[in-house]
Amino acid sequence: MAATLKDVALVAGVSIKTVSNVINDYEHIRAETKQRVMDAISELGYSPNLSARSLRSGRTGVIGLAVPELSLSYFAELADSIIKAAERRGLKVLIEQTGGDRDHELEILSSPRLQMTDGLLFSPLGMSNEDAHHLRVNFPLVLLGERIFGGPTDHVTMSNVESARAATAHLLSKGRRRIAVVGGHRGEVIGSAGLRLRGYQQALEEANIPFDPDLVAYTTFWHRSNGATSMRELLETGVEFDAMFGMNDTLALGAMRVLQEAGRRIPDDVAVIGFDDLDEGRYSLPTLSTIDPGRDEIADTAVRVLQERISGRDADLPPRELEARFEVIERESSALPG
Amino acid sequence: MAATLKDVALVAGVSIKTVSNVINDYEHIRAETKQRVMDAISELGYSPNLSARSLRSGRTGVIGLAVPELSLSYFAELADSIIKAAERRGLKVLIEQTGGDRDHELEILSSPRLQMTDGLLFSPLGMSNEDAHHLRVNFPLVLLGERIFGGPTDHVTMSNVESARAATAHLLSKGRRRIAVVGGHRGEVIGSAGLRLRGYQQALEEANIPFDPDLVAYTTFWHRSNGATSMRELLETGVEFDAMFGMNDTLALGAMRVLQEAGRRIPDDVAVIGFDDLDEGRYSLPTLSTIDPGRDEIADTAVRVLQERISGRDADLPPRELEARFEVIERESSALPG
DNA sequence: AGGTGAGTCTACAACGTTGTAGGATGGGCG
DNA sequence: CGCCCATCCTACAACGTTGTAGACTCACCT
C-alpha cells in the first residue's frame, strides 16, 4: 500500500540507505542525488513508517499523560498546556484516564499497556506518599501534582503552601478575620489539600489569628457539587465567617452558588478566593479571585524534563523537585477596599 | 534491556514461535508446554514490544482524536467520553489540538504526522463544507461535529436542528415569545450555529411567531467572553426579549452573567436555556437548563464505527450519517409555571 | 608514484514480532 | 500393516527502518 524506502530507492535509482540518509539529513550526499531522492519521495508520497523506525531506534516520539479525568477542568486545561508544550518539542501525547483511582494508577505504572510511549507524565490522585516506591519504574517518568513528595523521580509541582498562604493573606489584607476553608481532606498532610491547609494556617499565624477548626469544611472530591455541599453544611453549623478560601476554583464556584442562594453577598458579606485560575472563574458572577498556579510553566517544565530523561543525557542526575511561580489574581469576589 | 521472545524461548526451552503462539492463544499447544512458557514469561517480566508487533501487523491499537482545544469544556468532556469508549474496546487515544484553525486541520489530514495511529476521529471547526473533499484520505476517518455534511466518510453527529427546535419550544412552552439567540455565525447555513438557528426558526414558525433578526446576536467564537460581549451588545440595542437561547452552555453562562449584572432576573425576566449539558451548568447561579446532546452515545458510536472501518470488514459500506439522541434538561434558568 | 583522507555511496545485519510451510509424533481407519 | 489426519512444534522469511563497515573515487600532499 504505502510507499517504502525500497520504492523510493527504486525510483530514484539509489540504494535504500541513501534514501534513508537523505531523510535523516546526512551530510555527505551530492546535491544532485539528494534532489533525485526528494523528487522520488514527493512523487510517491512517501512517508516513513513510524513503527519500523521506532522498532529500530527504540523511540516512538510519543509521551503518555496520565490524569484523573479530563472532565475536571483543571486537568483539561493542564492537558491542553501539555499537548502544546509537547508539540513545540515535536512530541505527541497519548492520554490515559485513571479516574483518580489508586489501583488504576498502580496498574498504569506496572503494566506494559503504555508501551508505544517513550515516557510518562503522571498525575496521581489516589496514590499517597507511602506508594512512592511504586514510582521506581524502568521507564522515564515525571511526576506531577501534590500527592507524593521525595519520590524517586523528577517532580514538577506548584508552590502549594506559599500560594495558599498568599491567598489567605490576600483575604486578610481585605480586613477579613474569619476565613472558612472548603476542600480539606481529613488527616491529609501531604497532598494539595494538606499543603494548602498548611499555607492557610501559616498565614493566620503570621497575622496572629488563632486557627479555628470549625471553619474547615472537608470533602472527598473537589467537584462543584462537593463545594456546594460543603458550604451547605458549613452554613448549617451556624459558624460565622466573613471570607472563604476554596482549595480550587470548582469548589469555590460551587460554594459561592450556595452562599448566594443563602442570601450572602459576595464580596460584601463573604470575600472569596479560589485556586487554579480556570477560565470559568473569569465569567462567573461575581468573577472569582484566584491563584494562578503557573500551569503553562508546569507543562513546559514537565515536558522538557521528561524529554531530557528520555534522551538519557542526564541519567545520573538525582531526582529534581521543580516548582512553578504562582500569582494572586484579584477579581470581584474579593475586591474590597484593602 | 527488556526481555524479548528470544529470552523467554531460551528459558522455557522452546522455539521463539511457540512463545509467540502461547501469547496469541494458539490452540494446539500442550498444557505443560504452555505452563512452562507462562512461567518463563512471568519470571522475566516479559511484555511484547508493540513497535515490532505493529510493524508486523500494521496495527498500532491507537486512534487519533483531533479537536480544537481541550480547554473548551465541551471538547474536554467529549475527549473524556471518547477515551473511555476507546478503553472499553482496547484502544488508546492520541490527542491532537487544531486550535480550530482550518490550515492546521487540513495539515492533520494530509501530513503523515499522525502515523502510529490506526485511524482518526476528527472534529473540525475551521473547515467548511467546501473542504469536504479533503476528507477523502487513505486512512480510516470518522467525522465528528457539524461543520461538514455529506462528506466521503462516516459521520457521527448530534441532532442539531431538532434539539435546537426542542430547546426553543421549551422556552415557548413557558409562555415566552421574544427569544434572543446568542452565538449565531453570519451567513452560516451548515455548522452548529447555522443548524441550531434553523431549529430555532422552525420552532418559531410552528408557534406562528415571526422571526425577528434583531434578536440574533452573532459571535465569532463560542467562549464565555463571546457570550458576555454578545449579551452586552444585545442590551445596548435596546431590543426587548423575555428569553434567551444560548447556542452552547458556555455562551449561555457568559451571557447570563451580563444579564444579571444588568439587573435582569433569571428566569423571571429572562428565561435561559443552553446547549451541551456541561457539568458547569449544574452549579451555576441559577442552574442552567440545557440540551443533553448525547455525548456518551456519540463517543461510543464514533469509536465503534472507526474500529469497524479499521478492521476493514465493512470496507464497501457507503459512508454513514449517525445521529445521537438528545434530551431537554430543565433546570432553574427556565423553571417557570408552564 | 604512492599514500592519505575526505566525500559519496552501498551491502548487510539487526530491531522483535508473526505468517507460512513443513517436520515429527501418534491415533484411527481401511 | 500402511495410510491419513490431527496435534504439537520449529525454521525461516518478512514487516520497514537505521547502524556499521567498507568500497570506490578523486584531490591533495610528500
For this entry, give a set of tags.
homodimer; 434 Repressor (Amino-terminal Domain); DNA-binding; alpha/beta; Rossmann fold; 338 residues; elongated; four-stranded parallel beta sheet
Could you outline the blueprint of secondary structure elements for this entry?
Two copies of one chain form a homodimer.
Chain A: H1 5-12, H2 16-23, H3 31-44, H4 50-57, E1 62-67, H5 73-88, E2 92-97, H6 102-110, E3 119-122, E4 141-144, E5 154-158, H7 160-173, E6 179-184, H8 192-206, E7 216-218, H9 224-237, E8 243-246, H10 249-261, E9 271-273, E10 290-292, H11 295-311, E11 321-324, E12 327-329
Parallel strand pairs in A: 1-2, 1-3, 3-4, 4-5, 5-11, 6-7, 6-8, 8-9
Antiparallel strand pairs in A: 10-12
Helix pairs in contact in A: 1-2, 1-3, 5-11, 7-8, 9-10
Chain A binds a DNA duplex (30 and 30 nucleotides) through helix 2 and helix 4.
Structure commentary:
The structure is a homodimer of 338-residue chains. By secondary structure, the first copy, chain A, is α/β, with parallel strands linked by helices. Helix content of chain A is 40%, strand content 15%. Chain A folds into 3 domains: 5-48, 434 Repressor (Amino-terminal Domain); 62-157 and 295-324, Response regulator (Rossmann fold, 3-Layer(aba) Sandwich), CATH 3.40.50.2300; 160-293, Rossmann fold. Chain A is built from 11 helices and 12 strands. A 6-stranded parallel β-sheet of chain A has the order 2-1-3-4-5-11, with helices on one face. The N and C termini of chain A lie far apart (70 Å). Chains A and B meet through α4, α5, β2, α9 and α10 of A and α4, α5, β2, α9 and α10 of B. β2 (92-97) of chain A pairs antiparallel with β2 of chain B, so a sheet runs across the interface. The structure holds a DNA duplex (30 and 30 nucleotides).
